[in-house]
């Protein structure tokens, strides 16, 4: 059974909470942004730890994804090294929304990295920072985020349990989780994502288009 709040946010049932590894504390805690919103809206609160920018945006209503909101998020997620902008994949926002609904923190989602131009990704890869050369950051399909500074691994645990894409945990000086909507995978740095996930995704998309056509 799925339980919703008055705002329409999906609340984890006891079974779902336990499945997500939240335990009793997670069951009693409210989702991160339960608000007095109508059931037909999905909103995100984002804050960049690098630029300091804040963004609260309703990106989906019962009329579909809001183009203006997607543009605002795409700019928020821009490559801060080059100011390059790439369209954010709406599926990434849905993943962030679902992660946020299943974490205990009331903080916004703190973004550390959004879109990366191929040049930036290659520069980071050559510096040996554990960067995937085929990273979904280059497609607007990934973000590096944190939320609860006292339990920075919670985002990773939730994303891993959801199993809707890639989830990596980086216990660096400022710990964070990588989340993407590529083929499901999980890793803990210095471990790396499964090689060739980008090619695997392209094959899946090509097959889906073939079957649809």
Write the layout of secondary structure elements.
Layout: E1 3-4, E2 10-11, H1 14-19, H2 23-28, E3 42-48, E4 54-61, E5 64-65, H3 67-76, H4 90-101, E6 109-113, H5 118-126, E7 142-146, H6 154-162, E8 166-170, E9 176-180, E10 185-188, H7 197-212
Parallel strand pairs: 3-6, 8-10
Antiparallel strand pairs: 1-2, 3-4, 4-5, 6-7, 7-9, 8-9
Q: Rg, please?
A: 17 Å
Strand order of the largest sheet: 5-4-3-6-7-9-8-10
Spell out the helices and strands N to C: EEHHEEEHHEHEHEEEH
| Beta-strand proportion | 15-25%
Number of strands: 10
User: What class, by secondary structure content?
Assistant: alpha+beta
Unreliable spans are 1-36
Write down the overall mean pLDDT: 86
Tally of contiguous helical segments: 7
Helix fraction by DSSP (H/I, runs of at least 4): 25-40%
**Biggest sheet character:** 8 strands, mixed
Tell me the distance between the termini. Answer: 35 Å
| Morphology call | globular
């Amino acid at each position: 059974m799925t339980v919703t709040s008055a705002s329409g946010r999906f609340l984890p049932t006891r079974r779902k909470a336990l499945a997500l590894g939240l335990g009793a504390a997670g069951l009693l805690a409210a989702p991160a942004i339960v608000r007095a919103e109508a059931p037909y809206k999905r909103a995100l609160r984002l804050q960049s730890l690098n630029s300091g920018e804040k963004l609260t945006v309703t990106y989906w209503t019962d009329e579909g994804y809001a183009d203006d909101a997607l543009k605002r998020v795409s700019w928020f997620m821009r490559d801060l090294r080059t100011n390059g902008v790439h369209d954010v994949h709406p599926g990434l926002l849905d993943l962030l929304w679902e992660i946020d609904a299943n974490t205990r923190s009331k903080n916004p989602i703190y973004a550390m990295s959004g879109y990366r131009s191929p040049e930036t990704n290659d520069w980071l890869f050559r510096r040996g920072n554990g960067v995937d050369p085929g990273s979904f950051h280059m497609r607007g399909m990934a973000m590096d985020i944190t939320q609860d500074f006292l339990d920075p691994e919670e985002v990773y645990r939730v994303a891993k349990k959801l199993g809707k894409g890639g989830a990596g945990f980086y216990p660096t000086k400022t710990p964070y989780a990588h989340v993407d909507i590529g083929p499901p995978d999980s890793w803990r740095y210095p471990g790396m994502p499964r090689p060739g996930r980008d090619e695997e995704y392209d094959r899946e998309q090509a097959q889906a288009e073939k079957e649809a056509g």
